[in-house]
Model the fold of this input.
Amino acid sequence: MAEIARLIEWLDRLSRVAVIVFVATITVVMLAQVFFRYVINSSLQWSEELSIWALIWMVFVGSAVLMKDWAHINIPTFTNLIPIKIRPFFLIFGKLATIVFLAAVIWFGFKVFNQDFHARSSSLSMSTKWAKLSIPVGGVLMMIFAINATMHDLIHWRRGNDAHFENQGNPGTE
Done:
């Protein structure tokens, strides 16, 4: 179990570093574009494409970072109305449904990545399949974190730890 926890923490750190790199890339490239356009009077042709690709990767890897702590936006009103004794069933079911959805995202993401209809970007002259790869990569990371969260919930449910489920779904309370 300790090895799995270390793997999850390593993947989380790696994902967070990747998101920081993507945000920094977007920031630096856009600042350079503004400088070149308004100070030097010469636009960078590749800046918009690179920023868009970094944004795409940031969204999918960033979603995985949020998935680790189950911090995606939600409205816990319904969950809070469910009695604490049966709340774990709904929360675990929701996480299992998320895992099934992510399996479909991964499956179709790899299908799109492996297709032959990819265009070449005009400025960077790279295949757009590399931007599309962010879908299954982010999906795999999200699935790993979702499975980990589900296993964590199952362990707490099995031990009868109702307190674990009291604030679940309320951002910032876990």
Summary: Residues 2-40 form the longest helix (39 residues). Residues 59 and 83 are 35 Å apart (CA to CA). The chain has a mean pLDDT of 91. The two ends are 21 Å apart (CA to CA).
